[in-house]
Amino acid sequence: MNGHKVLPLRLGVGVIVLNDKNKVFVGKRKDNPVDKWQMPQGGVNEGEKLIDAMKRELEEETGINNIEILKEIDGWSEYELPKNLLGKIWKGKYRGQKQKWFIVKFLGKDNEIDLKTSNHEFIEWKWLDIESLPGVIVEFKKKVYEELLPKIRDSIN
């Protein structure tokens, strides 16, 4: 049996933040500063409601709190860590993540976005055309982004 399959999936949330032009927020992670970008995401604390975790993670990573929640995406998205990251991320406790994704509309101005939060994970950010999402994410999360794309399209059309 493959050893890492014994590890559980970490429960997480992800946030698709759209601006008034339906571009999506992506950040460049400080621990992976190559040209890879991702949407805000993070873990759920024990006993925390998913929607509260989403709001907390979004504010912790981006400073964004001026939002309207458009949709909680049905179902769950999952990804597995590649072998080189197993045992290194999340103190080695998990083999990947099981995520609940939300789509929100950013109601504020770009100057409200602040990456220098106490838990900052991003070193740079930009608004991106949603169709570009699968091309900018790290390979092991690509399937999740490809699955999210039609759900994002449905919510903005």
Please tell me how large the radius of gyration is: 15 Å
Name the average pLDDT: 92
Proportion of residues in extended strands: 25-35%
Any low-confidence stretches, pLDDT <50, length ≥5?
none
CATH topology: Nucleoside Triphosphate Pyrophosphohydrolase
In the residues, how many domains can be counted?
Answer: 1
Shape: globular
Q: How many individual helices?
A: 3
Based on helices, strands and strand pairing, what is the structural class?
A: alpha+beta
CATH H-level superfamily title: Nucleoside Triphosphate Pyrophosphohydrolase
CATH class: Alpha Beta
Helix content: 10-25%
Question: In the CATH hierarchy, what is the architecture at level 2?
Answer: Alpha-Beta Complex
How does this structure look, described?
The termini are far apart. Strands 1, 3, 4, 5 and 6 form a five-stranded mixed sheet that branches. With 157 residues, the chain is an alpha+beta fold. It is 20% helix and 30% strand. The chain has one domain (3-156): Nucleoside Triphosphate Pyrophosphohydrolase (Alpha-Beta Complex).
Descriptors for this entry?
157 residues; alpha+beta; Nucleoside Triphosphate Pyrophosphohydrolase; five-stranded mixed β-sheet; two-stranded antiparallel sheet; 3 helices; globular
Question: Helices, strands, pairings?
Answer:
Blueprint (H helix, E strand, L loop, with lengths): L8 E10 L5 E6 L11 E3 L6 H13 L4 E6 L4 E4 L15 E11 L15 E7 L4 H4 L5 H15 L1
Parallel strand pairs: 1-6
Antiparallel strand pairs: 1-3, 2-7, 4-6, 5-6
